[in-house]
Amino acid sequence: MRVLRRTLGTLLFLGAAVSCAASPDADARPGDGRPAALAPYAQLLPAPASARAEGPGYAVGAGTVIRTGPGGDEEVRRVGELLADQLRAPSGLPLPVVDGAGGDGIRLRLDAGAEVTGVEGYRLEADPGGVTLTARTPAGLFHAGQTLRQLLPVAGPGTVPGGEITDAPRFAYRGAMLDIARHHFTAEQVKRYVDQLAQYKVNTLHLHLTDDQGWRIAIDSWPRLAEYGGGSEVGGGPGGYWTKDEYRDLVAYAGERYVDVVPEIDMPGHVNAAQASYAELNCDGKARERYTGIKVGFSSLCVGKERTYEFIDEVLGELADMTPGRYLHIGGDEAHSTPAADYAAFMDRAQQIVGRHGKTVVAWHQLATARPAPGAVLQYWGHDRTGAAEKAAVAAAAKAGHPLILSPADRLYLDMKYDLTTKPGLAWAGFVPVRRAYDWNPGTYLAAAGVPQSAVLGVEAPLWTETIATRADLEFMAFPRVLGLAELGWSQGPADWSEYSRRVAAQGPRLDAQDITYYRAPDVPWS
Ligand code: ACM
Q1: Candidates 75, 310, 334, 499; catalytic one
Q2: Superfamily assignment of 173-493 in CATH?
Q3: Could you list the residue ranges that cross the membrane (predicted)?
């Protein structure tokens, strides 16, 4: 692996060198104190598994078409149309999508026998005759298209430099989480985030739909959850909720970008909004007041009451019915008001219910202290000060076959402040500058605790919203740190901050062009 990585590094370096000779924007400027601009193949983020710049490239111009044949695969056609949309705005070109593989242009080639790795891998080849994207699946073609976007200028027509990329992800699960419970965000706002993430090959959106402060998803069999429990948020604002159609529409929109949605109903704690909506969900039969503060750990479903399990069954059943992805997330964190034995008994039944609805459980890693069901995935959110016993429980679960999603709070929690100047955000896990979010290895992160690399399903960057209420603040906290998540999830590594930070800087104009409100963090060498 080490040798391979070094080889890849050399290829990238050579690619940069070759492109430098061919590309006017890549001139080194010795003496002005700034690092030379990176050549296009060396700018890609996430970095591809291998890239080689060679020879003249393909000029995308007024006559360029996007070819999605042969065979007329409907999904490939859709991927082609989406790519055309994404390329039209910056290039100002018409870029019609046509059937048929022959001829020049941008060709999307679905080939079940292609020599690419896995379901998301792809190859990209560019020469004066055109650009060919090859993959075994439409998802691979989509990712190839996102790479192609980064090989073209931020604005105006341009030339895809000659060369070849062979690429595939390091981890199957590359996620971002958004908490729409503490503050309500609309489905349209979340679509924008999906677009921002999918271009960097993030393939999962975890939606934290419910918490003490608000219930954000309509459930037909328990209508007051959304209608009443949705009417609050942190700080006393009006809150809100998504109808089932809005949720389905978001899920479909994400799916077209090869982003799976993982919905979370957090339980048995973090349930005050439900307990305010229905008195029967409380052991004492009395409805709670709605809550707009930011304390945690005070609410618990009534573990001994059969009605609690009817509630979970109906809620998770409706959610499973409108979620095509394989996972349902049932929270399980910070259940400080649920005694340990009750917690374990409750999680046993909640996991069975998820299974009965045909889904796989995801839960925060506290489930490791109870009895994770076969196949359950644990999401680790500890940090440098997390105790050995807690890590040992996670390691035991990992060794017993439970896949782990890593979301270390002091690395990937996007609600942690960058530094002293950050206005939104919290700091209980410390500051998380851009470098800290990136400069670690998910494969070995919990190795000292005994977690084998093979247990790591992937990485996820959660964005909790106790202090985040606007699109601008969401983007400011996510960008550019979420690029680190994308890079760690996709690229083979190893982490090299100085090289990576230059690629982040190279994304600056692209983030600007997309009107993304990002932090021009001082540790990144922005031009
Ligand atoms: C969490 O941050 N309570 C998962």
Answers
A1: 334
A2: Glycosidases (3.20.20.80)
A3: none
